[in-house]
Structure formats: structure tokens, C-alpha cells
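When time allows, look over one protein, given below as sequence and C-alpha cells. The question is which stretches look regular and which look disordered:
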Amino acid sequence: MPPELKTRRRAQRALLLIDLVNTWDMAGGSQTLRRAHALLPRIVRLRQSAARAGAPVVYVNDNFGQWRSDFRQVIEHARAAAPRSAAIVDALHPDADDYFILKPRHSGFFSTPLDLLLEDLGATGLVLCGVVGDQCVLATASEALVRKYSVVIPRDTLVCPTPGRTAAALAHFRTAMDIATPLVRHVRWR
């Protein structure tokens, strides 16, 4: 039976993997890619723990301006970009039960059906991780709070081009937005 026809389990939290299927062709892309590789084992661990707990896993990804693309094309485009890019895609390769949202701008909510999907899944909380922490993750977190989702951002899965930008983003999440930033091993799905 296709996953979309299965009875959906109501979840309190969903995992959003933001822009991790990527070509890294951006300002600061090579530094961001290096930092993403360093954090990849923790991101994989977070994804695995979500799947084990039955929490929905949602890939929220740029469409790279390709308005006729689908997520499989985005995956292949990222895999073909470079061997280090392919290694991230391969490590985080989506399962048949995962969900995909292609976004045209920074926020995962802007002009996408993400909110409708999360409502259908029964998610009231979100765990966010990905790229770039002070841009797309920040925009998605801001809109999630406006929509009254509880938000958690594991600090060892947030990717920015520099340690300074990562530290500033995490401080902003904690102090200005009141978002918890635990380590992956402390994330709970219910």
C-alpha cells in the first residue's frame, strides 16, 4: 500500500530537514558544505531517531529556481553537483514514508503546503535542522512560531558557514525566540 494511503499516526513532533539536499552553490557554500559534513553523523542520528519514534520526516528544500522540478529531480541535481554533495544526499536519502516540500524562498512555509501537511499529520511541534541556520532555518522557525508550533532546534545539527554565525543564530533562537536548542541526544519526539 502506498504510504499516503496508510492510516496516519498522529504525531506531536515532526522533523524538518531544511535544504540538506543541496548543490552548495551559494555564497559561503564551500564552508557550509564542510560544516555540514562535520555535523552529518548527528543529523543522520536525529533523522533515525525520528523514524524510530514514528515522527514524520519532512524534507523542506529549495527548488533552485527550477519551477518544473520535483523532489527526485532535486535529489539527482544535488547528487550530480559534487562527490561531497552526493555523500550528504546518500546519507540522508529519503525513505518511502518521508514527505517533501519544495520551497521557492527562505521559509518552508512561504507559498508551500507545509502547514496543511503538518496539520494533517497532527504535528503540534517541530524539530528543525539544516542549512543555513541564520537564513532558511531562521525564516522557517519564525513562521512556525507565528503558526503556534512549538519549535526545537538541536544545536549540533544547525549549519552555518562559520562558527560565529552558528553561535549568533543559536543565541538568537534561545534568547529572542525562546526556542530550545538541545543536543540531538536530548531530543524527545512525544
